[in-house]
Amino acid sequence: MRYRKRSLKKRICAVQKTAIANGLNNFEMKQFDLICDYNHNDKSEKFNKRLIFVLLILFLLPWILFVLNNFMSARCLVPSNYLIWEATRPLANCAYCENVTKPIVLYNVTRHEFNYAYSTGPIIVKNAIKSWRATKEFNYKMFKRLYEETGGSYESLDDGCQFLNFKTDLFSLKEVFNMPEERVKNEPGQKPWYVGWGNCHPEILSKVRQYYNVPDFLPSDAEFSGTENIFFGYEIGAVMHLDYISRLMWQGQVSGNKIWSIAPVPECDHVCNGLEFYVEKGDIVFLDTRIWYHSTRIPAGEFSLTVQSEYG
C-alpha cells in the first residue's frame, strides 16, 4: 500500500511538472490542492547533495592530510618544509655574489690571517685537515661497525637527525649498511650511491670526534654546532639545493675529491653567475650555503667522504 501511494504521488508530480512546463502559472496552480511543492523539492535535493558532499569531505579529510603529510615529509621526495622555506626566504642582497668568478684559495692560514670566517665564500683552505686521523681511518666499514654496535643508533635518525639519500634508492642508513659488498665498492654493473646524515647520537658523536678537530683558524669566540654531518659515496653527489640552517658551514674533504657547482639565488641571476670548483682530499670548503645554491659530484670511480659542521 505504501509503495502504491509513493508511486501515485510521483505520477501526480510528473503531471504537475508537465503542466508548469506548458505554461500553467503559479496563480493557476494554487487553484489545485498541490501534492508536490517543487521549489521545496529542488531545495531539498540541493541540500541533500551538499550534505553528502560535506560528509564525504569530512570522511576523506584525515586520509588526505595523512597522504600530504607523508608526501611532504618523505626525505626521498622533498625534505621537510623545503618548499615552504624557499617560499618564505628573505630576498638576498646580491652584493654577496657580484664579481665572484672563482673561489678564494688559501694555504697554511692562521687564525690571525683568516679574515673570511663570516664571509659568504666560496673559500678553499688547502691541506687544512691533513693532520686529522680521519683522513687515514674514516671509511664505510668503520661507520657501519659503529652504528651496528651502538644501541639506539638508527633510532637517532628518526628522532631528528636527518638522513638524505639524494638521488640514491636507499631510504635509511640501515639500508646503506646492509648493501651487498659489490655495491659498497661500486663494482662494475652496480648502481652508484651517495648519502648523508646528521651524526647526533651522543656516543657515536663522541667517538668520531676523536678523529678530527674544528678548524683551528676559526675565531676563538665562534659558536659551534652540537652535531656534524657525514656525506659519503660515489659519483652522483648532492643535487642542487640551498641549506636551510641557522649558521655558516665548513666541510672537510676527508677522502677522495669532489666537484662543486654553485649558483646565486634567482633574484640575483641578473648580476651574478654560477661557477664550478674542485676540492681535493685534505681541503676545507667554506660557503654560505643558505644563499648559494650548490650541488656536488664525485669523479668516476672515486669514493668521497666529508665531514660538515656549522659555526657562527
From TrEMBL:
The keyword Disulfide bond does not apply. Keywords: Membrane, Transmembrane, Transmembrane helix. The keyword Amino-acid biosynthesis does not apply. InterPro entries: JMJD6_ArgDemeth/LysHydrox. GO terms for molecular function: 2-oxoglutarate-dependent dioxygenase activity. The chain crosses the membrane at residues 51-72. This is Cupin-like domain-containing protein. It comes from Bombyx mori (Silk moth). The lineage of its organism: Eukaryota, Metazoa, Ecdysozoa, Arthropoda, Hexapoda.
